[in-house]
Design goal:
Elements lengths: L5 H9 L10 E2 L6 E6 L7 E2 L7 E7 L1 H7 L4 E2 L10 H6 L7 E2 L2
Parallel strand pairs: 1-4, 5-6
Antiparallel strand pairs: 2-3, 2-4
Length: 102
């Protein structure tokens, strides 16, 4: 599970699920990037590169890099919900090197 928003990440840790948790956001390019995230405790956080409101910079990593670091190139179930940039993230995946079953 990849969760960039710090409050949601801590909540997920507290649930003690049998899952690997990664505290980062997904890069919209095949290279690591930095993004600004507006924080809303108890609500959805939003990545907003043009924000003038208080935000924090977070490291975003390519999904494929995360999968390689976890030694996982075969995925049984893949769900992607990142509030509008799903296609950009999918475009970074080398589908010839990743096996996504569902």
């Amino acid at each position: 599970m990849i969760e960039a928003e710090p409050f949601n990440f801590l909540e997920a840790l507290g649930r003690k699920r049998n899952v690997t948790l990664v505290p980062t956001c997904l890069s919209l390019s095949p290279k690591p990037t930095l993004a600004k995230m507006l924080l809303n405790e108890g609500a959805l956080a939003k990545i907003d590169p043009d924000s003038t409101k208080s935000s924090v910079s977070i490291q975003c990593l390519p999904l494929y890099s995360i999968l390689l670091a976890l030694n996982r190139t075969s995925i049984d179930l893949f769900t992607l919900d990142i509030e509008g940039n799903e296609l950009d993230v999918l475009r970074t995946l080398p589908f010839d090197k990743v096996d996504i079953k569902v």
